[in-house]
Amino acid sequence: MENQTIEITSQAQSAFIEMLSAEFIAQTGVGVYAYLTPLAINSLFRQYLQHREPLRAFTKQYVKTVLV
Predict the structure, then answer these.
(1) What are phi and psi of 40, to 5 degrees?
(2) Whether 20 contacts 44, CB under 8 Å
(3) Closest of 26, 38, 37, 7 to residue 67, by C-alpha
(4) Are 37 and 17 a contacting pair, CB within 8 Å?
(5) Residue ranges of the domains in the chain?
(6) For burial by CB atoms within 10 Å, which of 5, 15, 34, 41 has the most?
(7) What's the rounded Cα separation, in Å, for the pair 31 and 6?
(8) Residue 15 CA to chain centroid, in angstroms?
(9) Top-confidence residue, 8 or 21
(10) Residues 6-40, buried b or exposed e (16+ Cβ, 10 A)?
(11) For residue range 21-65, what is the model confidence (pLDDT) as tens digits?
């Protein structure tokens, strides 16, 4: 059961990073790592898990706040 939870979290984190990077590319032409460190991305992922907001909406809103 614990391994399954870790796998799901790992998959969710990968999807999160892909979506976040895609949004940065769409808005700026460069990926997420041009703006954020891996530690910052991990912290942002933990915030996302607490907000219970759709992934696309969360990433779009976050990128907007970074670019303002």
Answers:
(1) -65, -40
(2) yes
(3) 26
(4) no
(5) 2-67
(6) 41
(7) 26
(8) 8
(9) 21
(10) eeeeeeebeebbebbbebbeeeeeebbeebbeeee
(11) 999 999 999 999 999 999 999 999 999 999 889 999 999 999 999
